[in-house]
UniProtKB/TrEMBL annotation, chains A, B:
GO biological process per UniProt: fatty acid metabolic process
Family: Belongs to the 3-hydroxyacyl-CoA dehydrogenase family.
Organism whose genome encodes this protein: Aquibium oceanicum
Matching SUPFAM superfamilies: 6-phosphogluconate dehydrogenase C-terminal domain-like (SSF48179), NAD(P)-binding Rossmann-fold domains (SSF51735)
Gene3D superfamilies cross-referenced by the UniProt entry: N-(1-d-carboxylethyl)-l-norvaline Dehydrogenase, domain 2, NAD(P)-binding Rossmann-like Domain
Protein name stated in the entry: 3-hydroxyacyl-CoA dehydrogenase
Domain 3-hydroxyacyl-CoA dehydrogenase C-terminal: start-end pairs: 183-245
Name of one Pfam family that matches: 3HCDH
Location of the 3-hydroxyacyl-CoA dehydrogenase NAD binding domain: 3-180
Amino acid sequence: MRAGIIGTGLIGRGWATAFARAGWSVSLWDHAPGAAALALSSVKMALDDMASVGLVADPSAAAARIRVSDTLPDALQDTDYVQESVPEDAEIKRGVFELLDRYAPAGVPIGSSSSSIVGSRFLSEIPGRDRCIVAHPANPPHLMPVVEVAPSLWHDEAFVAEVCGLLASIGQVPVVVRKEIEGFVMNRLQTAVVNEAVALVARGVIDPADLDAVMKHSLGLRWALMGPFETMDLNAPNGFLDYATRYGHLYQSMGRDLHVGEAWPDDALRTIEDSRRQETPRAEVGERMRWRDRALMRLMSLKDKL
Amino acid sequence: MRAGIIGTGLIGRGWATAFARAGWSVSLWDHAPGAAALALSSVKMALDDMASVGLVADPSAAAARIRVSDTLPDALQDTDYVQESVPEDAEIKRGVFELLDRYAPAGVPIGSSSSSIVGSRFLSEIPGRDRCIVAHPANPPHLMPVVEVAPSLWHDEAFVAEVCGLLASIGQVPVVVRKEIEGFVMNRLQTAVVNEAVALVARGVIDPADLDAVMKHSLGLRWALMGPFETMDLNAPNGFLDYATRYGHLYQSMGRDLHVGEAWPDDALRTIEDSRRQETPRAEVGERMRWRDRALMRLMSLKDKL
């Protein structure tokens, strides 16, 4: 099986890593000359890192299955699946999808990594729109396996199931977002947290570093293992409905008091930036990013064992 | 050092485990006859479980430091810190704090596990209110170490620092919530996620099990390692402010579209309950709760190593 990876920024590289790890061949193409070759070396490092925690058996063999393509038609040749990860701009995506639909083999599904733009805004006029669908990954895709498969009105259930099956076969976790909605699900949940967090700092309720501590030393630990509904289900003697009956009024009262719809005040953003630079000086950011990726791999490996 | 644990439900037991693990002696007292003795056996199991992943060196010695008290004054004798974990009801807490303040040794701080009621609603008329303060843990406290220390207007900085220092000395992670606000910080962030999640199910956007999958296979993985601000800081080339400039408009547009202030529709709650029972039948819930606690221990142990 061969995946065509179109656009080789952070997201495209993660997709390439995920497909290569799963035993697929991969073709890389990027609009910018030299970008795909650069991406290949980054993917090789990711495969080596994953091998070091037991997540890839043979990283050299996986890397050897990846080729860099100089032209878009070449990258699409002999593919069984194509994933677009170009910039988050409806016009750019529409232009790229016209080419992808023209050159990809007949019948091959083409996924878009769109993280907030709904499919009907850039796919509805593509001749082969039936095979073009939003398949939004987390960032980076090879370390956070969820993919939001978000059909548009013209897609049928069989095609959605085909794409989900393909993604599941490489170890990703597809979920179906059944209605076109801004931000799909993942980014809406993230926005709810981030906007309230910024508002709490803006009001002087908590320091930025302490807010981060609340997440990583409480809520985040549980959410790494189970989602909000299972969390609630296990936190009342008789399950989710029991929990909702006991505590629903608190959530609803608190919900009306949240500030998630407010703009981000400039001085709060500056306070957060200053706090971040105290915690992680600019010179150490690269190292911290590598720490994060290795930590995510260790976490992935732990979850495999649990 | 001795901690007096007042109220021995899930939260009180977790506090007892955390103090005993840190080498403290612990006195347990509960209003209901026999409850504290029952709690002790549960704490012993938790200490054994933690020992099995290397989080407690000598669980028998830790357990031997815990005693069950038949009377409240006995439980408070010779304590260096007292933690109240009685039901979430301002009247009940006020009554208990009158007794705690009367019988606890002079100068000993008394923390309240209040999870949403602000301190001024039940502490302002306690004679020794200067030493009584909200210290809200996550649930369970011994597996999720954050404690929200939430002073009221009458508390001075030195006392807040003393309580934070004491909690940090037993391995918890104290954060200061500087203003009295409903739900403090942790439960506001949780509410933001839960309310949006319920609304998305209510609108038919996503199935409950898939919503949980989005959290545990993407956002939750990262949030177990770093909070939302550090996440953003590491996701743009030039840090948090750069991220805010690039993506702030998306968060603010999405934020205005969130449904966190809406009531929970009954049919959505029923859909979620049905989904939970499909995923985890009633008979398997107890086993799943033990899985969760053991998984949290493994995660805690991994984070210690990272």
